[in-house]
Specification:
A hairpin with a 2-residue loop joins strand 4 and strand 5. The chain starts with a helix and ends in a 6-residue tail after the last helix. It has three domains: 113 residues, Acyl-CoA dehydrogenase/oxidase, N-terminal domain (Butyryl-Coa Dehydrogenase, subunit A, domain 1, Orthogonal Bundle), CATH 1.10.540.10; 97 residues, Butyryl-CoA Dehydrogenase, subunit A, domain 2; 139 residues, Up-down Bundle (Butyryl-CoA Dehydrogenase, subunit A, domain 3). By secondary structure, it is an alpha+beta fold. Helix 5 runs antiparallel to helix 8. It is built from twelve helices and nine strands. The strands form three sheets. Strands 2-3-7-6 form a four-stranded antiparallel β-sheet, with no helix packed on it. Strands 1-4-5 form a three-stranded mixed β-sheet, with helices on one face. A two-stranded antiparallel sheet has the order 8-9. The longest helix is centred in the first third of the chain and has 33 residues. It binds flavin-adenine dinucleotide. The site of flavin-adenine dinucleotide has 25 residues, from helix 5, strand 1, strand 3, helix 11 and helix 12.
């Protein structure tokens, strides 16, 4: 007889196996979606059909629940194939699961049911003036009939053009407060999205014009026990990009022949690749350790995820830059995946919290610097 834990592990492995199968198709399409800056809808629908949505929703909300280890692996696999799909998935699930959790005690299972039904969610948190500190909104929502009204903007909202619901935060009586918003005509898209990397996320600027933040869609504050989809997913996006960049580098080095020998036979390529591969393995291990702590309910997991994102973001850029060196001019062509991995790797360290903000957190912790002194 199997135990519930063994059953859960078996279910997770089956889910991961389905996602790995799908990922091969995502990888084949990634360059086209990137070139067109088009949201990969088919990939998102395929992940939903494969049971990913149900697995991401914690069991007490009607999902099947997923361990942090399995979640991290899932995002890594998808990100290696197409990091735009992984970013949209992370943001969608982060917003959907957060709204289901934050409104559970007041609204019941409304957002959980919408999430399970395949409705699309997006995170509208970043503001023009809060910089990277997306959990410290500066925009005040003013009391109005039925809730509060928001006049302002949210930026870089991944896949907002297809969202049925947005997770929005604003100040209510000076306190950062979360709301679910079904975008109506008061929410306008300012189409500025034309970036270097993660182009298929179409992370647009949204303008809110007296948008009603409904009182019944108001959420509670975040708790450390909530499923931390975004902090746990972001390192995996960079690790997936780095894995893809390393694979592209190795493929190029093996097939490019210079003066009768493959590039992979040159010692500088071997040494530089060894350095990149070992540092990438260390970044994976740091991430796995943080996920394990999270599954054990050890509060140290949060510091671990911060360190994991910092290292993953930096290593991804390093590996991708080495790819450009090894790729030479042919890797610099638009037809080569090498240049795309570099563009995508750069985006990882911009996404909040950026490596600069994380470095401040980690440095303060190591040096024992507190608010007091
Ligand atoms: C591909 C992509 C997808 C995204 N998706 C979403 C999404 O779905 N939802 C969402 O809400 N946001 C999203 N974002 C926004 C992102 O998470 C950041 O909040 C946003 O990029 C920060 O603003 P900024 O890029 O203008 O950088 P700025 O904040 O202007 O940063 C400029 C520089 O200042 C540094 N800096 C900023 N603040 C601080 C600080 N407090 N201390 C020290 N240094 C600081 C930064 O590290 C950076 O080096 C996305 C961003 C990208 C690139």
């Amino acid at each position: 007889m199997t135990t519930p834990l063994a059953d859960q592990a078996a279910d997770e492995q089956q889910l991961l196996s389905r996602v790995r199968d799908l990922a091969a198709g995502f990888a084949a399409e990634a360059a086209g979606y990137d070139e067109r800056a088009e949201i990969p809808l088919e990939a998102l629908d395929a992940l939903h059909a494969a049971g990913v949505t149900r697995a991401l929703l914690p069991a007490y909300l009607g999902g099947t629940g997923l361990s942090y280890r399995a979640y991290g692996e899932l995002v890594r696999v998808v990100a290696k194939a197409d990091p735009s799909v992984a970013t949209i998935l992370t943001m969608h699930a982060g917003a959907g699961v957060a709204l289901a959790e934050l409104t559970h005690d007041t609204l019941g299972d409304f957002f959980a049911q919408e999430f399970l039904a395949g409705k699309r969610f997006a995170n509208a948190l970043s503001e023009p003036t809060s910089g990277n500190r997306f959990l410290i909104p500066q925009q005040e929502a003013l009391a109005a009939e039925g809730g509060w009204r928001l006049d302002g903007a949210k930026r870089f909202v991944s896949a907002s053009e297809i969202a049925d619901y947005l997770l929005v935060n604003a100040l209510v009586d000076g306190v950062p407060t979360f709301f679910g918003v079904a975008p109506d005509e008061s929410v306008a898209i300012i189409p500025i999205w034309d970036t270097l990397g993660l182009r298929a996320t179409r992370s647009q600027l949204l303008s809110f014009n007296q948008t009603l933040l409904r009182a019944d869609y108001r959420g509670r504050a975040l708790l450390p026990t909530d499923f931390q989809i975004i902090p746990a997913g972001l390192p995996a996006i960079s690790l997936g990009v780095a894995d893809a960049a390393l694979a592209a580098l190795a493929d190029h080095a093996a097939t490019r022949v210079i003066l009768g020998a493959p590039l992979s036979h040159q010692q500088w390529v071997q040494h530089a690749t060894a350095d990149a591969a070992v540092r990438l393995a260390a970044a994976h291990a740091l991430y796995d350790q943080a996920l394990r702590l999270a599954d054990e309910g050890n509060p140290a997991y949060f510091g671990g995820l911060i360190q994991a994102k910092y290292l993953a973001n930096k290593v991804a850029v390093d590996v991708a830059q080495l790819g450009v060196r090894v790729g030479g001019a042919s890797g610099y062509l638009k037809t080569s995946p090498i240049q795309r991995h570099l563009r995508d790797a750069e985006a990882g360290q911009l996404m909040a919290y950026s490596t600069e903000v994380l470095a401040t957190e980690i440095g303060k912790q190591v040096l024992g610097v507190t608010e007091e002194g």
